[in-house]
Model the fold of this input.
Amino acid sequence: MELKQAARSLARRPGFTVIAALTLALGIGANVAIFAVINGILLRPLPYPESERIVNVMHHAPGIQLPELENSPGTFSLYQQYARSFSSIAGIQEGSRNLTGGLQPVRVQVAEVSPSWFDVMQVQPLRGRRFIEADADTLAAPVAILTYEGWQAHFGGRDDVLGSLVEIDGASTEVIGILPPRAYTNPDMAVMLPMFIDPNGPMGRFGTIGVARLAPGVTLDAARREIDQLQARIPEHSNNQMTAETLDRFGWSASLQTLRDRITGDIRPALLIVLGTVAFLLLVACASVANLFLVRAESRQRESGLRLALGASRGRLAASFLSESMLLGIVGGVVGVILAAFGVRALIAAAPAELPRLHEVSVDATVLLFALALSVVAGLLFGLLPLPQQLRSPLQQLVRDGRGSADLDRQRVRKTLIVAQIALALVLLTGSMLMLRSFQRLRSVDPGFNPNGVLTLGVSAGDGVSRVEATARYQRIAEEAAALPGVTHVGLINALPLDPEGMNGGSFELESRPRAEGELPSVAYYSAISPGYFEAIGTPLLQGRPMERADIEERRPVVWVSETFARDFLGGEAIGERVRFDTVSEWLEIVGVVRDVRTFGLREPIRPMVYVPMTEPIGTMQVSAMTLVLRTSGDPAGLAPAARAAVQRADPTIPITTARTMPAVVRESMADTAFTTTVLMIAAIVALLLGAIGLYGVIGYVVTQRTQEIGVRIAIGARPEQVRTMVLREGLVLAFIGIAIGTIAAAALTRGLESALYEVSRLDPLTFVVVPVVLLLTSAMAAYVPARRAAGIAPLEALRTE
Done:
């Protein structure tokens, strides 16, 4: 009955209902959309049985600037042999390979896994069989399992692919199984291969991802304690390849975290910041609707008095008001869910490509329950506010005040809500401006190269060819690309700046500075390049000579180093010095020094770099996949079709994995910051508008209630500008109070933004000056319109107003 009456009451006032419902829908929809993303990425369990018991094993060596290390054959066999906390443990190595035999030759992502991966994940193939230990034998016939996504994308979901032969890097390989959908954590993974991990392998060759399933009854904390204790067995297990003294100097430690936390850990802070932002927006929206309800409640005082006079209880009256607010909350929630469905699509389209589990985001039952709960809470928030005054007022006053007089309690509540709106809007504006300034600082960072006019193409000779043959094929591609109209420079690199997949690092020694006994090794990162690379990417040569074709053809033992390498290890005098990496015996002469490049990201610190001719085999550095870099005098994006054709003319067997301009690569490297900044800016602008509209409404209502008083003032001689100033002052006092409270709140709450900021203090003086000024000016404009209307009131007309 109450709901029917509430529905009829709202229907009689469509203007109020539409404005209130849309305001709520905006706040609820934003929260539901962000919650859908957080639910899909952070909250929803991984698609494996008891997925919370799957853990990732990591190591840390801060003493040699290696904050994170995966596993080596030595550590893997240590845990496999001694860790009782694990029911099973598996190793994974992710990379890419050339695949032929599908719809077309492509470079695909490949995961080499130990057969125990199926025990850890408790996954069974959708078709065919899983890997067995015999498949991982180095003498066994090559076999592969396709992920469901790889089967659909590269084989069109053909049934006859099971049991067929495909070529992976030139090796004929039998497809023995197909995984179920979303069985691998990376949706881009296409192929799985069996991996043999030598139990007697080296302790120091890291790069194998370790995943394990906790044994029944074992807690994560208990497993962590055992893993910590097992580190003391590394010297014995490795035959002193790594001594206790070495481990101590490395600052060596191990850690366990759930696989879900490992996948989503980096993005968690940014998503929580966005959720906090839209929660503030919902509070602003609720405050706006509460003010509307207060005004409406005053206009219904006579109706309420009559209902009480006719015998209705105050409880029945309260139920009526709450029914309206709850119904309005539900309507706002329904519209909000519709908006959220579109919002989720927009967020997925705008989100950074590296955002994990993005394919799992959807508006599911959990999200709908969240929307329902949010609608109910929002309805209660703004519905309860008018009740105390409405139910406390004497019956005689309720009946007498048909038009709703300016009650002091209601005035205070309305003004308090406006102050809260302004304070919340200031917090959001402060956060958005801090992120905007951080983003501007990030955009101004010198990446160490000139991205303008540069096109990049991923090309791959595959692992099945020798380094010499691969180099020759890449050289032919470079020569063909160099002949394209408008191309001025061409080069190749195995790990593109800002997108360093394939980057390698390791310890080294300098011939002129032998390492003292007990001294920690120096660590640098290295990339394989071709002649012309520095010119193509736009990295200046600071000392020495550029790379020549003869360096490749004659396999000269030469390298180029970054200015940080030259400064930190050689005092800036690097030319002529010789360096040797621990994995090779050959000394390499430094013949050039180039500008530092932000290899790992614009936010990341500059690392010492060594650039090696792509013919030089160092450590695990591969040239099976390279990036072709072309500098053009024209539009780089427009060059892409011709560049693709040039690669195919030079070598039709080489697949092209990507084609991106360097400006796009730079933008992608900032995508997470841009995403967070955009969401904060939109929320802040909406909150500012809602706050301004609320202030306008309250001051306008005050003017309406004080029409007679204003008329009297004008009649006895008050000038229009005095009236205007009086009304404007009332609005600005509310704004000042809200700004003061908001500034204090912002100073405290921006601690949560600190990790997301780049070279901007959370108490940035410019932000804390500009934001209050903007809010004050906006408030002044919102209050000026009703103030001007008040100054134009005609005294006689005002005195006739009841």
Summary: The longest helix spans residues 314-350.
